[in-house]
Amino acid sequence: MDQYTVTVRTSTTYDVVIGAGLLGQAGAYLRSCTAAQRVLLVSDRNVYRRYGAAVTQAMAGFSVSPFVIEPGEGAKSMETLAKLLNAAAGHGLRRQDGIVALGGGVVGDLAGLAAALYMRGIPYVQMPTTLLSAVDASVGGKTAVDLPGGKNLAGAFWQPACVLCDCTALDTLPPGEFANGMAEVIKYGVIRDPEILSAAERGATGLPRLIARCVAIKRDLVEADERDVGVRRLLNFGHTIGHALEKASGYTLGHGAAVAVGMVYATKLAEQTGLCAGMSPRLSRCLEKYGLPVSPAYPWQMLVPLMELDKKNAGSRAVTMVLPLTWGQCQLVAFPPEELLARLTEIDREDKT
Ligand code: ADP
Ligand code: ZN
């Protein structure tokens, strides 16, 4: 399996390394990007059971203490964050020591925020074990926990010291979790690189290369817009409708599944407004290949008001959507909510006839 390195230059510079067997080299990478001696290894029960021992062994020479959380979004809380910070203090972590996040987005977001807060910021190394966190969360420096009032409401921007994406660890992902990640992979294909879409259609072989291309696209967009106010918003393709669907489902629908539906309808909207033509059937086929949904399980009357609440629309009532113009090219378009509702309803009415 090939190995790829994507260098990210934001407020700090770090490498995202993608390849096989990287977890077994965790110690060497940790030594190369931090001066840590003590390490808090954060993981969830599923991931720790499979990979905890190998990573701990690979960090021989470091003083490693595990902090293992329950799998699932529920652990992304202020309560777990407080426990994690206390565990860091209990293990005697100092300013140069490190937090290692071994797991998916939940582990990465939580451990990253703890690293941002502990002693006003210590190094952390991300080892994403889901496809979603590999392509989505390993670049951008967004860390957060959820509050009772909403997802990711308490967070910080904090860049990792390095990111190790061991693709062999993705082999044990449940199929639904793999599909969630593929939705984001396909997103990169539509917004920037049609080659990615073709690779997804061929069945996502050559995963390290595919992940590296996605990470490089996100890197380019984030470097141009670290604080998320401009071109980075293109990464939001499929997410305006997607976030509304996640909320409507009480977060039982997976992020990738929600984004899949969102991408299909953003594309149908672009077709309806004359921005593009004939793109949605190919996109739907590609998503369905991975068992992803392509139509919403909730009515638009319920979803559109939830889109108005999307934090990305701060200050205005208009709903900003990312719409495709052609494969690899998108544009931001703002709709008044009434018009959006009318258009989405019309799309479904036409689809039925
Ligand atoms: P996401 O990256 O989608 O936010 P989560 O952190 O919520 O992912 O993880 C999704 C689920 O997949 C969790 O139950 C987690 O324990 C499990 N998981 C993560 N990585 C792996 C892996 N490599 N093999 C098996 N299960 C995994
Ligand atoms: Zn996403």
Report what the structure shows.
The radius of gyration is 20 Å and the shape is globular. It has helices at residues 26-33, 45-58, 78-90, 105-117, 131-137, 175-191, 194-201, 207-224, 239-248, 255-272, 280-288, 300-308, 337-352, and strands at 4-9, 13-19, 38-44, 63-69, 98-103, 124-128, 142-147, 150-157, 162-166, 319-326, 329-335. The protein has 353 residues and is of the alpha/beta class. Strands 1-2-9-6-5-3-4 form a seven-stranded mixed sheet, with helices on both faces. It is built from 13 helices and eleven strands. β3 (38-44), α2 (45-58) and β4 (63-69) form a beta-alpha-beta unit. It binds adenosine-5'-diphosphate and zinc ion. The site of adenosine-5'-diphosphate has 20 residues, from α2, α4, α5 and α6.
